[in-house]
Specification:
- The protein contains seven helices and nine strands.
- By secondary structure, it is of the alpha/beta class.
- The protein has two domains: 180 residues, 3-Layer(aba) Sandwich (Peroxisomal Thiolase, Chain A, domain 1); 42 residues, no CATH class.
- The strands form three sheets. Strands 1-7-6-4-5 form a five-stranded mixed sheet, sandwiched between helices. It has a two-stranded antiparallel ribbon with strand order 2-3. A two-stranded antiparallel sheet has the order 8-9.
- Helix 2 crosses helix 3 and helix 4 crosses helix 5.
- It is elongated and about 55 Å long.
- The model has no long low-confidence stretch (mean pLDDT 90).
Amino acid sequence: MGIENIEMSHQSIGITSLGYYLPTGRMTSLEMSQLSNTPENVFIEKIGIFQKCVVTDDEQPSEMGTKAALSAIDNAGIRASDIDLIVYCGVGDYDYRLWSPAAKIQSEIGADQAFAFEVRNFCNSGNLGIDICRNMLIANTEFTYGLVVCSDRLSSLVDYSNQDSLSTFMFADGATAAILKKGETSNQILAYHAVTDSEAVDCFKIPLGGTRLPFHSDNVDQSLNYMQVADREKLEKIIS
C-alpha cells in the first residue's frame, strides 16, 4: 500500500449532524389487540410496545426521508449543494416499483451535484449505508459530505388479523438522516462488521409482487399483499 493510500485510509469520518421525521399518527397496543384478537398484555409485556408511529393521509417514504434530510442539513449548518453522496436506506418498499427514492430526495433538497443510490438490506440498511458512505468519502478525494437517509412506511404492510405475524406488529413508520463529514473528529466511525444469519430467510416475506408471484388480476387473495411469517415458532426461536 502506497503512502497516499495509507493516509486516505486513516482519514477521520464522523457524523456531524442528525435529523429525523416522525408522522403524527399513532397506533396503540390496545388498537393492535382489538384488530388481532390478542390480549393487550402480549404487546406490552412480550413485544414491549405501547404505541407506534404510523403515517396519516398519504405520506410516502421518500417524503418522510426528505423531511429528515432537510432537518439533518439544517442541523449541520451546510447547504444541500455541499452534499457529495446520498444513500437511501430501507427495507425496499418504496413509493413505486423500479424507482429511485434516493434520486427523488436529491431533487427535492437541491443536492444537484451529489451521487444518489439505494441500499436495501432490511434492518441492517442504515448501518450498511453509513459504512458504504464512509468508505466512499475516504476513497474519493473530492468528496467531503455524505447524507444517509433511512425511511420506511412499514405499518401498512402488516396484516393485523394474522396472529402468526405477531413479530411484525412492531413495524412502524418514520425517517432519520445523518450527515457524514470527512475530517470530522467527533462521532467518528471507526469500523463496521456484520454477519448474515440466513436460517430464517424463508420464514418471512410478502408473497405477491415478485417474479415468483407477479401482480395479476387472478391474484384475488389480498392477504398476499402483506408480510407473512411462514414458520412462527422457528422465527421466534431465532430472534429471541
